[in-house]
UniProtKB/TrEMBL annotation:
Residues 1-51, 751-773 are annotated as: Disordered. InterPro entries: A-amylase/branching_C (IPR006048), Branching_enzy (IPR037439), GH (IPR017853), GH13_cat_dom (IPR006047), GlgB (IPR006407), GlgB_N (IPR054169), GlgB_N_E_set_prok (IPR044143), Glyco_hydro_13_N (IPR004193). It is an enzyme of class 2 (transferase). Residues 306-666 form the Glycosyl hydrolase family 13 catalytic domain. Pfam families: Alpha-amylase, Alpha-amylase_C, CBM_48, GlgB_N. This is 1,4-alpha-glucan branching enzyme GlgB. HAMAP family: GlgB (MF_00685). Monomer. Its EC number is 2.4.1.18. Catalyzes the formation of the alpha-1,6-glucosidic linkages in glycogen by scission of a 1,4-alpha-linked oligosaccharide from growing alpha-1,4-glucan chains and the subsequent attachment of the oligosaccharide to the alpha-1,6 position. The lineage of its organism: Bacteria, Bacillati, Actinomycetota, Actinomycetes, Kitasatosporales.
């Protein structure tokens, strides 16, 4: 996938700039030559003129010009500390006022009892020396062509970031980095405005531009805060909803305009500006959060519905999804939803996997508060929320992270090492502490600010191996001569340890497709490889997915030759804590939908589909199913179209076929959640016993699952298109009768109706190494579950 790039430097929203000053300042149309008190209005067209005292008379100040070197650096955007030049500074003979306001006609300093018009020094500089003993509180009256703006001077304010913030940033240990960097509305020295802060250590200078200054940042240079690489500026009067970007002067003197890496809200793509955001959401999920950590995830029911929000029902907003998606998932009985990346991304065809706004939910569906409302409603309905998280790579869009401050910053210095070989993107420099901090804090951010219950970490395998998708000679071994990416290992361990420490009940899930040792082992436990565990809570079982789908794709007559593809997963089932994923990746780009992978005619395809889901829900491990597969959609998924909901329309002739599969998934979830044997010991070998794992000629798989108290559930999958009568299945002798609790061949699901309506009693006829056995009629292409009567 290659990200489509909107035009570089697209600021967007300039039409809003004219509205911003009215909300920020008091302005009026007046003659440029005077500053009478009555010329300043409230900024509202319908408001009565305020009663204000007569201003002090205006005097002309003697010039106090800016030093030529400072002047040149400010004009060229390369000054690292504009506050030492601009603003009010005690000097011999009084206080020097210096202001940089390009395009202004006049600038007057208002100290309350004294008003002084500053000297025009040219190029937008204004200065004056006033006979004062100390720098006073003051405001500026800035006259443009026929307009006077009364405003605070940004350069009279102390830094808004404290020593602790800067220390933690410098150490790469600021676990709430989003509270320090980015844009924050706050009251500072008694004045309300917005603090802008950005990490750009290679920049020669940084200026903030936006609607509030007509996208001209030349009058708003930021100051560098020591060796941290952080630049900061408090801009009075700027508030919620303002558009902004950072204008960065690169080391070579050229300039680039960038969106804020820490922006918590963005414009709707393809526009690329950042927005100042203030959250007003009041959470209502306290009960959910209070009990989220009561049971460890691997010992609890965990059935996940994977959703691409923009296409689940195209056109719905976050708030509309909060009603419809919540209702549907609750009705279907899934315990969790997994949202494909919601972080902002420029190209919808990337499905969210090429992120440019790591701290901003995509604006396509609403505001950050709207997304919080969606999570809140899901929690109140008892549904957990997982989201995909993408720390492996980011796109090259020139308004975003790539070469952010003129040099590689978030990516490695070596271009060959930086380039992700599969997607044309850039990898993160995980050996740089500030980059690790950016990502670790981001993981915490989604969990703490949006109450996310779990992070499914994308493309972990591509992070772990230096030679991933690279040929010999295209990669450099680590310090030990190996292929392991030691920086990535350390990052993942730090991320997992931090999230689990700060956010009780949250789970992290690795999409990791290799046999890396200890993905779900605690970070402090070393394995045979010498590495500590990566610290994930769960791992996608890509081997099970590949092997089982391969088996199901074979015609039943050939399946006996591939029996091991269904049983091999149990060889390693307890090496990690697994999720069994049938995800979006398996139903796109020519792979076909799940039902279309199945052989045979339409009836057999649906029967195979149902039997496979029954096998999946009973196999050790948690379940994940992508949208559309729960009703056997025939077409593969398209992000432009979404699921084919019309297949369920009663007016469609084959709707009953699809509704039958949907009803099965609903019942699978219901029985699953009510049956601890199916989830309580997913990671404990004592929770599984093969009954018939070698019945290849019959295409039969039979096993017991056991709850923590030993209560069993018998699962039998028969994957041949024939009925087998009087088929003996060995069972424990201490259970007097078994009752069928689910049969994927039931008529209501679209099956043949070969079911066991009455309890089945064991007979003292040993088979499968058991002293007793059941005589069952095995339905064609079906999975049957039985429990003690």
């Amino acid at each position: 996938m290659t990200s489509k790039k909107p035009a570089a430097g697209n600021t967007g929203g300039q039409s809003r700039a004219a509205r911003t000053d009215a909300a920020r300042t008091r302005s009026a149309q007046v003659p440029a030559q005077s500053v009478p008190a009555q010329s300043v209005s409230s900024g509202r067209d319908d408001a009565p003129a305020p009663v204000v005292p007569a201003p002090a008379p205006v005097v002309s100040a003697a010039p106090a010009a800016v030093d030529p070197d400072d002047r040149a650096r400010l004009l060229h955007g390369t000054h690292h500390d504009p506050h030492t030049v601009l603003g009010a500074h005690p000097v011999p003979g009084g206080v020097a006022f210096r202001v940089l306001r390009p395009y202004a006609r006049t600038v007057t300093v208002d100290c309350g009892e004294l008003r002084a018009r500053l000297h025009d020094d040219g190029d937008g500089f204004f200065s004056g020396l006033l006979p004062l003993s100390s720098a006073p509180d003051y405001r500026l009256l800035v006259t443009y062509d026929g307009t006077v703006l009364e405003t605070e001077d940004p350069y009279r304010f102390l830094p808004t970031l404290g020593e602790l913030d800067l220390h933690l940033i410098g150490e790469g240990r600021h676990e709430q980095l989003w509270r320090a960097l980015g844009a924050h509305v706050l009251t500072h020295q008694g004045v309300t405005g917005t603090r802008f802060a950005v990490w750009a250590p290679n920049a020669r200078g940084v200026r903030v531009c936006g609607g509030f200054n007509f996208w001209d940042g030349s009058g708003f240079p930021m100051r560098s805060l020591g060796g941290t690489g952080v630049w900061e500026l408090f801009v009075p009067g700027v508030g919620e909803g303002e558009l902004y970007k950072f204008e960065i002067t690169r080391p070579d003197g050229s300039r680039t305009v960038r969106a804020d890496p820490m922006a918590r809200r963005t414009e709707v793509p393809p526009a690329t500006s950042s927005l100042v955001d203030v959250s007003h959401h009041e959470w209502g999920d306290a009960e959910w959060l209070a009990h989220r950590a009561d049971t460890p995830v691997h010992e609890a029911p965990f059935s996940v519905y994977e959703v691409h929000l923009p296409s689940w029902r195209p056109g719905l907003t976050y708030r509309e999804l909060a009603e419809e998606l919540t209702s549907y998932v609750r009705e279907m009985g899934f315990t969790h939803v997994e949202l494909m990346p919601v972080a902002e991304h420029p190209f919808g065809g990337s499905w969210g996997y090429q992120v440019t706004g790591y701290y901003a939910p995509t604006a396509r569906l609403g505001t950050p508060d709207d997304f919080k409302y969606l999570v809140d409603r899901l929690h109140q309905a008892g549904i957990g929320v997982l989201m995909d998280w993408v720390p492996a790579h980011f796109p090259r869009d020139e308004w975003a992270l790539a070469a952010f401050d003129g040099r590689p910053l978030y990516e490695p210095q070596d271009p060959a090492r930086a380039a992700h070989p599969d997607w044309g993107t850039l990898e993160f420099d995980l050996g740089r502490r500030e980059v690790r901090n950016f990502l670790v804090a981001n993981a915490v951010y989604w969990c703490e600010e949006f109450h996310i219950d779990g992070l499914r970490v994308d493309a972990v395998a591509s992070m772990l191996y230096l030679d991933y998708s690279r040929d010999s000679g295209q990669w450099t071994p680590n310090e030990h001569g190996g292929r392991e990416n030691l920086d990535a290992v350390a990052f993942l361990q730090e991320m997992n340890a931090t999230v689990y420490r700060r956010c009780p009940g949250v789970v992290t899930i690795a999409e990791e497709s290799t046999a890396w040792d200890g993905v779900t082992r605690p970070t402090h436990h070393r394995g045979p490889s010498g590495f500590g565990g990566l610290g994930f809570g769960l791992k996608w079982n890509m081997g099970w997915m590949h092997d089982s789908l391969q088996y199901m794709s074979h015609d039943p007559v050939h399946r006996k030759h591939h029996h091991h593809e269904m049983t091999f997963s149990m060889v390693y089932a307890y090496s990690e804590n697994y999720v069994l994923p049938i995800s979006h990746d398996e139903v796109v780009h020519g792979k076909g939908s799940l039902v279309s992978k199945m052989p045979g005619d339409w009836w057999q395809q649906r029967a195979n589909h149902r039997a496979y889901l029954g096998f999946m829900w009973s196999h050790p491990g948690k379940q994940l199913l992508f949208m559309g597969q729960e009703f056997a959609q025939g077409a593969e998924w398209s992000e432009a179209r979404g699921p084919d909901w019309w297949l369920l329309d009663p007016g469609y002739g084959a709707a009953a076929d699809h509704r039958g599969v949907q009803d099965l998934v609903r019942d699978l979830n219901a029985v699953y959640r009510a049956t601890p044997a199916l989830w309580q010991r997913d990671t404990d070998p004592a929770g599984f016993e093969w009954i018939a794992g070698d019945a290849a000629d019959d295409n039969v798989f039979a096993f017991l699952r056991r709850a923590a108290d030993g209560t069993p559930l018998l699962a039998v999958s028969h994957l041949a298109p024939v009925v087998r009568s009087d088929y003996r299945i060995g069972v424990p002798e201490d259970i007097p009768a078994w009752v069928e609790v689910l049969n994927t061949d039931a008529a209501r699901y679209g099956g043949s109706g070969t079911v066991h309506p009455d309890p089945v009693k064991p007979e003292p006829h040993g088979t499968h190494g058991r002293p007793a056995s059941l005589r069952l009629t095995l339905p064609p292409l079906a999975t049957v579950w039985l429990r003690p009567a």
